[in-house]
Amino acid sequence: MVFVIFLLVVSKLTVFGQSAEVTDTVSSEQLLVKAREFAYNNRKIEARKLCRLILQRDSTYLDAAVLMGRTYAWDQKYDSARIVLNKVTEQKPGYYDALDALIDVEIWGEDHKAALKYANIGLTSHPDDAVFLYKKARILNNSGDSQNAVVILNQLLKINPANKDASGLLLTIRTAKLVHKLTLNAWVYAFDNENPWSFASAAVGRKTSMFGTVTLRYNYARRFGSEGHQLEIDAYPAIAKGVYMYFNTGISNKKNFPFSRLSIEPYVKLPASFEMSLGFRYLNFDDKRIVALDSNKVLIYTGTIGKYYGDYWFSVRSYFTPGKERWSKSINFTVRRYLADADSYFSLILGTGFSPDEQQFAFNPNYYLKSSKIDLDYQQKIATRFFLNCGSGFAREEIRTNTKRSRFSFDLGVSYLF
To answer: Taking CA atoms, which of 19, 103, 200, 333 is between 20 and 30 Å from 278?
Structure first.
């Protein structure tokens, strides 16, 4: 008999899941289970329909209202979410799930003042609650009050020393105060028909509020029996909300590097975790002039589109270089898999053509006629302040018509925050 009843319930749920028609024989509890299933499987509109049906039956069924409010928030319909969730807190002040959802809505909507208000209300009704304490610390840190965020996190860790969210955020706050970064890199390129090339760089960067991270870098290159030296500077100034600029300029002794260079490229953050950019690279090979506008200069147009998806980052970058007879083109495709944090990852890079952002190749854009490459890169954060980077790659390059060679690359780098 029990088995027959079970089959009847399942059949009714299956029918209503397909047709959205619900009979009175399906309980509100069963409807909420189905609504949650819809909500967590990206069928949020159907989930809201079931929540409304539950509330039509019983306006005090607050779990249905909270779920409805969260689905609005997941769709970035924050005003709708606020209306639904505030009605819940009016019916039942201090209701835990509604306050928790309201905090999330305001965090996602970047209204730090409102988020802090609901976190304080939650802690008034639920003192020393781990979730509300952690979210209050997040809000304080996001609004620039890291000092009080640390106080809250220490309070939370005193209650529960094993709280990983709290210890992780505390480490992030402490790391963010380390605004300087020293980086050392070295590369070796080996060929099947030529002496090896060697490269090195040393850079010091500093985080700033106006210009983003500003980096001063020294580059060294040894090839063709000569040594080249270059100084350059990078900056990432913010232009507007969701828009920032990549700026680079440099000068060298003209051996193995262009005499001067300039790069400008605006980046725009797009919906759905996309990002795009469009800019140029200017290379000047006349050591008698800082700026050349004749045949001694090379102007390269570039653009990229990237997408964050879970723990992955995908990016496609193209370069277009005008020529007398035709434009040369190149493209790089990057897939990056992030590990424990944003500073630890694996990268795979596939590319064809010339890449002027790699300083090893910027000495002569016309040196390669055709090329294809594959690179693997790995970076690992060690403790709090150190980063280790290593990589290797292979390329097949055409340096003259019908003359090709193989190139093997190896690199190693270390960074230190202070």
So the answer is: 200
